[in-house]
Design brief:
With about 200 residues, this protein is mainly β. It has one domain. Helices cover about 5% and strands about 40% of the residues. It has 1 helix and 12 strands; from the N terminus they run βαβββββββββββ. The protein has a 5-stranded antiparallel β-sheet with strand order 1-2-8-9-12, covered by helices on one side. β4 and β5 form a beta hairpin. The longest helix has 7 residues. The protein is elongated, with a radius of gyration of 26 Å. It starts with 13 loop residues before the first strand and ends with a strand. The relative contact order is 0.22. The model has no long low-confidence stretch (mean pLDDT about 95).
């Protein structure tokens, strides 16, 4: 039970909503008016999830294996967002300064490292910390032009990350109390627009 904890791919909450809407234009029109206004379609996907878990390590006295960091003061487990740091595209997600004095506090009396327990009771659990969540909206609009009963050409405009929203990601690979006093994050994501043409037969 020492290493019991959430899986690294554990997401507590996830939601995806998608839809296809054939726009009700020109239902009573004829001729060129119907050819221009009919057969428009709207597609969308909205996806949201909470953050992934990660482990806070303390590699101060490790020989091969790092122990998990001690937390006798009870800091927050949520690394979800914060102010900019002095570096470009870097944000402070979780302040670890209260734990820094306890880094390297455990050493096995026989081996002189942290590769073996019994570990202190205030050692944090595996994957006890959680990074920021994520959300995204994709949208597509298409127009079908028909040629008789069998053939059609479809024009498509698709926008991935429609609102040009940059999601926050934690630098969880740097979660080592012996080297860092904070968990930082970065933003990533941009809008992409794609044009498509499809012949149907």
């Amino acid at each position: 039970m020492l290493d019991y904890g959430w899986a690294e791919f554990d997401v507590r909450h996830r939601g995806v909503v998608s839809g296809i809407w054939a726009l009700p234009f020109a239902t009573e029109s004829t001729g060129m008016t119907k050819a221009f206004l009919a057969d428009w379609q709207l597609n969308f996907i909205v996806s949201m999830r909470t953050g992934f878990p990660f482990t806070l390590w303390d590699c101060t006295n490790q020989s091969v294996i790092c122990m998990r960091a001690e937390d006798p003061v009870g800091i927050s487990r949520d690394a979800k967002g914060g102010p900019n740091t002095a570096n470009p595209n870097e944000f402070l997600l979780l302040d670890l300064s209260k734990l820094v004095p306890y880094a390297g506090g455990y050493v096995h009396p026989l081996t002189g490292n942290t590769d073996y327990g019994p570990y202190p009771a205030d050692m944090t659990e595996r994957d006890a910390f959680r990074g920021p969540g994520y959300w995204n909206i994709d949208l597509g609009v298409s127009k079908r032009v028909r040629f008789g009963a069998k053939y059609a050409v479809q024009f498509r405009v698709e926008a991935y990350n429609l609102l040009n929203h940059a999601n926050m990601y934690a630098n969880a690979d740097a979660a080592d109390l012996s080297s860092y006093s904070e968990i930082t994050g970065y933003k990533e994501g941009n809008r992409r627009v794609q044009l498509g043409l499809k012949f149907e037969f």
